[in-house]
Protein backbone atom coordinates (compact mmCIF):
# COMPACT_ATOMS: atom_id res chain seq x y z
CA UNK A 1 0.00 0.00 0.00
CA UNK A 2 1.53 3.29 -1.07
CA UNK A 3 0.51 6.84 -1.92
CA UNK A 4 -2.90 6.74 -0.23
CA UNK A 5 -4.60 9.11 2.19
CA UNK A 6 -6.84 7.86 5.01
CA UNK A 7 -8.80 10.59 6.69
CA UNK A 8 -11.89 10.96 8.87
CA UNK A 9 -12.53 7.21 9.27
CA UNK A 10 -14.79 6.22 12.18
CA UNK A 11 -15.72 2.55 11.74
CA UNK A 12 -13.02 0.65 9.90
CA UNK A 13 -11.77 -2.75 11.04
CA UNK A 14 -12.87 -4.24 14.38
CA UNK A 15 -14.89 -1.12 15.04
CA UNK A 16 -11.70 0.98 15.16
CA UNK A 17 -10.71 3.68 12.76
CA UNK A 18 -7.91 3.78 10.24
CA UNK A 19 -6.36 0.58 8.87
CA UNK A 20 -6.23 -2.89 10.38
CA UNK A 21 -3.27 -4.59 8.79
CA UNK A 22 -3.11 -8.34 8.05
CA UNK A 23 0.08 -10.32 7.49
CA UNK A 24 2.07 -9.50 5.45
CA UNK A 25 1.74 -5.84 4.44
CA UNK A 26 3.95 -3.09 3.13
CA UNK A 27 2.59 0.29 4.18
CA UNK A 28 4.81 3.00 2.73
CA UNK A 29 4.40 6.71 1.92
CA UNK A 30 0.79 7.15 3.03
CA UNK A 31 -1.01 9.79 5.07
CA UNK A 32 -3.28 9.02 8.04
CA UNK A 33 -5.15 12.07 9.28
CA UNK A 34 -8.06 12.81 11.61
CA UNK A 35 -8.91 9.16 12.32
CA UNK A 36 -9.52 7.63 15.73
CA UNK A 37 -6.56 5.30 15.15
CA UNK A 38 -4.20 5.68 12.21
CA UNK A 39 -3.14 2.03 11.88
CA UNK A 40 -3.82 -1.02 14.03
CA UNK A 41 -1.38 -3.82 13.27
CA UNK A 42 -2.44 -7.32 14.34
CA UNK A 43 0.13 -10.03 14.92
CA UNK A 44 1.64 -12.39 14.20
CA UNK A 45 2.97 -10.22 11.42
CA UNK A 46 6.21 -8.84 10.04
CA UNK A 47 4.67 -5.91 8.17
CA UNK A 48 6.69 -2.82 7.30
CA UNK A 49 5.29 0.61 8.13
CA UNK A 50 7.71 3.15 6.71
CA UNK A 51 7.79 6.80 5.65
CA UNK A 52 4.15 7.53 6.48
CA UNK A 53 2.66 10.66 8.01
CA UNK A 54 0.34 10.38 11.05
CA UNK A 55 -1.45 13.60 11.90
CA UNK A 56 -4.27 14.44 14.34
CA UNK A 57 -5.44 10.87 14.96
CA UNK A 58 -7.35 11.20 18.24
CA UNK A 59 -6.14 8.06 20.09
CA UNK A 60 -2.84 7.04 18.52
CA UNK A 61 -1.03 6.99 15.21
CA UNK A 62 -0.13 3.28 15.34
CA UNK A 63 -1.29 0.55 17.72
CA UNK A 64 0.94 -2.54 17.63
CA UNK A 65 -0.69 -5.59 19.21
CA UNK A 66 -0.87 -9.37 19.13
CA UNK A 67 2.57 -10.74 18.25
CA UNK A 68 3.49 -8.11 15.70
CA UNK A 69 7.23 -8.19 15.09
CA UNK A 70 7.55 -5.95 12.06
CA UNK A 71 9.13 -2.57 11.41
CA UNK A 72 7.92 0.94 12.20
CA UNK A 73 10.56 3.16 10.63
CA UNK A 74 11.08 6.73 9.43
CA UNK A 75 7.49 7.85 10.00
CA UNK A 76 6.31 11.26 11.23
CA UNK A 77 3.84 11.45 14.14
CA UNK A 78 2.44 14.89 14.87
CA UNK A 79 -0.53 16.20 16.92
CA UNK A 80 -1.98 12.75 17.60
CA UNK A 81 -3.32 11.73 21.01
CA UNK A 82 -0.19 9.56 21.32
CA UNK A 83 2.30 8.57 18.66
CA UNK A 84 2.69 4.79 19.05
CA UNK A 85 1.06 2.28 21.40
CA UNK A 86 2.85 -1.07 21.80
CA UNK A 87 0.80 -3.67 23.67
CA UNK A 88 0.06 -7.38 24.19
CA UNK A 89 3.05 -9.51 23.08
CA UNK A 90 4.21 -7.40 20.18
CA UNK A 91 7.91 -6.75 19.60
CA UNK A 92 8.23 -4.26 16.74
CA UNK A 93 11.40 -2.52 15.65
CA UNK A 94 10.75 1.20 16.07
CA UNK A 95 13.55 3.19 14.48
CA UNK A 96 14.22 6.57 12.93
CA UNK A 97 10.77 8.05 13.57
CA UNK A 98 10.02 11.68 14.35
CA UNK A 99 7.45 11.85 17.14
CA UNK A 100 6.75 15.52 17.89
CA UNK A 101 4.59 17.16 19.16
CA UNK A 102 1.73 14.92 20.33
CA UNK A 103 -0.88 15.70 22.98
CA UNK A 104 0.00 12.92 25.43
CA UNK A 105 2.76 10.30 24.98
CA UNK A 106 5.28 9.75 22.23
CA UNK A 107 5.50 5.95 22.71
CA UNK A 108 3.40 3.95 25.20
CA UNK A 109 4.80 0.47 26.04
CA UNK A 110 2.57 -1.88 28.04
CA UNK A 111 1.45 -5.46 28.75
CA UNK A 112 4.04 -8.11 27.75
CA UNK A 113 5.46 -6.21 24.82
CA UNK A 114 9.19 -6.10 24.07
CA UNK A 115 9.80 -3.45 21.42
CA UNK A 116 13.21 -2.46 20.08
CA UNK A 117 13.38 1.34 20.10
CA UNK A 118 16.35 2.99 18.45
CA UNK A 119 17.40 6.37 17.07
CA UNK A 120 14.03 8.10 17.23
CA UNK A 121 13.43 11.82 17.76
CA UNK A 122 10.83 12.18 20.52
CA UNK A 123 10.19 15.77 21.55
CA UNK A 124 7.54 18.18 22.87
CA UNK A 125 5.09 15.52 24.11
CA UNK A 126 3.68 15.36 27.63
CA UNK A 127 5.68 12.16 28.17
CA UNK A 128 8.32 11.00 25.73
CA UNK A 129 8.26 7.25 26.49
CA UNK A 130 5.96 5.64 29.06
CA UNK A 131 6.81 2.08 30.16
CA UNK A 132 4.15 0.18 32.11
CA UNK A 133 4.86 -3.10 33.89
CA UNK A 134 5.58 -5.83 32.91
CA UNK A 135 6.71 -4.55 29.49
CA UNK A 136 10.42 -4.90 28.77
CA UNK A 137 11.61 -2.63 25.96
CA UNK A 138 15.10 -2.11 24.59
CA UNK A 139 15.72 1.64 24.21
CA UNK A 140 18.98 2.88 22.65
CA UNK A 141 20.30 6.10 21.16
CA UNK A 142 17.73 8.59 19.92
CA UNK A 143 16.88 12.15 20.89
CA UNK A 144 14.37 12.11 23.74
CA UNK A 145 14.17 15.68 24.97
CA UNK A 146 12.01 18.74 25.64
CA UNK A 147 9.03 16.65 26.74
CA UNK A 148 7.29 17.58 29.98
CA UNK A 149 8.66 14.20 31.18
CA UNK A 150 11.12 12.42 28.90
CA UNK A 151 10.77 8.84 30.19
CA UNK A 152 8.25 7.55 32.73
CA UNK A 153 9.24 4.03 33.69
CA UNK A 154 6.70 2.25 35.89
CA UNK A 155 8.77 -0.86 36.22
CA UNK A 156 10.07 -1.26 39.75
CA UNK A 157 13.24 0.59 40.64
CA UNK A 158 15.21 0.03 43.83
CA UNK A 159 17.32 2.99 44.96
CA UNK A 160 18.55 2.50 48.52
CA UNK A 161 19.73 5.28 50.84
CA UNK A 162 20.85 4.52 54.40
CA UNK A 163 21.75 7.27 56.86
CA UNK A 164 22.79 7.06 60.50
CA UNK A 165 20.49 9.25 62.58
CA UNK A 166 21.80 8.27 66.02
CA UNK A 167 24.52 5.91 67.15
CA UNK A 168 22.45 2.74 66.91
CA UNK A 169 19.40 3.96 65.00
CA UNK A 170 19.32 3.81 61.20
CA UNK A 171 16.82 5.42 58.86
CA UNK A 172 16.19 3.43 55.69
CA UNK A 173 14.73 5.15 52.62
CA UNK A 174 13.83 3.15 49.51
CA UNK A 175 12.46 4.77 46.37
CA UNK A 176 10.45 2.20 44.45
CA UNK A 177 8.37 2.98 41.38
CA UNK A 178 4.99 1.18 41.52
CA UNK A 179 6.07 -0.85 44.55
CA UNK A 180 3.29 -2.61 46.42
CA UNK A 181 5.18 -4.63 49.02
CA UNK A 182 8.66 -4.67 50.45
CA UNK A 183 10.79 -7.13 52.45
CA UNK A 184 13.70 -5.67 54.42
CA UNK A 185 16.51 -7.75 55.90
CA UNK A 186 18.24 -5.45 58.38
CA UNK A 187 21.04 -7.92 59.01
CA UNK A 188 19.63 -8.89 62.41
CA UNK A 189 15.89 -8.91 61.68
CA UNK A 190 13.56 -9.33 58.69
CA UNK A 191 10.49 -7.13 58.22
CA UNK A 192 7.75 -7.26 55.60
CA UNK A 193 5.60 -4.22 54.82
CA UNK A 194 3.55 -2.50 52.14
CA UNK A 195 4.92 0.53 50.37
CA UNK A 196 3.99 3.13 47.81
CA UNK A 197 6.78 4.90 45.92
CA UNK A 198 8.80 6.04 48.96
CA UNK A 199 9.26 3.65 51.87
CA UNK A 200 10.92 4.84 55.06
CA UNK A 201 11.63 2.91 58.25
CA UNK A 202 13.63 3.24 61.46
CA UNK A 203 15.57 0.35 62.92
CA UNK A 204 17.39 0.13 66.25
CA UNK A 205 20.46 -2.09 66.32
CA UNK A 206 21.27 -3.67 69.69
CA UNK A 207 25.02 -3.48 69.34
CA UNK A 208 27.91 -2.13 67.31
CA UNK A 209 29.05 -3.86 64.16
CA UNK A 210 28.77 -3.94 60.38
CA UNK A 211 25.39 -4.91 58.99
CA UNK A 212 24.30 -5.58 55.42
CA UNK A 213 20.79 -4.31 54.64
CA UNK A 214 18.98 -6.10 51.81
CA UNK A 215 15.69 -4.97 50.25
CA UNK A 216 13.37 -6.94 47.98
CA UNK A 217 10.56 -5.27 46.06
CA UNK A 218 7.54 -7.57 45.63
CA UNK A 219 5.11 -6.68 42.85
CA UNK A 220 1.43 -7.67 42.91
CA UNK A 221 1.26 -7.40 39.12
CA UNK A 222 3.85 -10.19 38.96
CA UNK A 223 2.04 -12.40 41.52
CA UNK A 224 4.23 -11.18 44.38
CA UNK A 225 7.44 -12.28 42.76
CA UNK A 226 10.58 -10.30 43.50
CA UNK A 227 10.95 -7.61 40.86
CA UNK A 228 14.06 -5.81 42.15
CA UNK A 229 16.71 -6.17 44.84
CA UNK A 230 19.12 -3.67 46.36
CA UNK A 231 21.48 -3.67 49.30
CA UNK A 232 23.77 -1.44 51.36
CA UNK A 233 26.25 -1.88 54.17
CA UNK A 234 26.05 0.14 57.38
CA UNK A 235 28.61 0.35 60.19
CA UNK A 236 27.39 1.01 63.73
CA UNK A 237 29.95 2.27 66.26
CA UNK A 238 33.70 2.34 65.87
Automatic annotation (TrEMBL):
Limits of the Right handed beta helix domain: 26-148
Pathway it works in: Protein modification; protein ubiquitination
Matching SMART domains: PbH1 (SM00710)
Stored InterPro entries: Beta_helix, Para_beta_helix_rpt-2, PbH1, Pectin_lyas_fold, Pectin_lyase_fold/virulence, SCF-Subunits/Alg-Epimerases
Gene3D superfamilies associated with the record: Single-stranded right-handed beta-helix, Pectin lyase-like
Pfam family, one: Beta_helix
Top-level taxon: Bacteria
Keyword list, A-Z: Repeat, Ubl conjugation pathway
Protein name, UniProt field: Right handed beta helix domain-containing protein
Species assigned in the record: Candidatus Woesebacteria bacterium RIFCSPHIGHO2_01_FULL_38_26b
Amino acid sequence: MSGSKFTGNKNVGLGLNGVVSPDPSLIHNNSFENNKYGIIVLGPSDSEIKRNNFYKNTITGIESKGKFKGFIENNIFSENGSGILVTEESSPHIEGNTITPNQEVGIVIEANSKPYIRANTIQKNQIGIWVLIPANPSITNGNISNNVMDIRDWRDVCELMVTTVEKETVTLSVFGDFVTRMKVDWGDKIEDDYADYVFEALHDYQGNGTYKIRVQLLDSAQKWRTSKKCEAEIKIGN
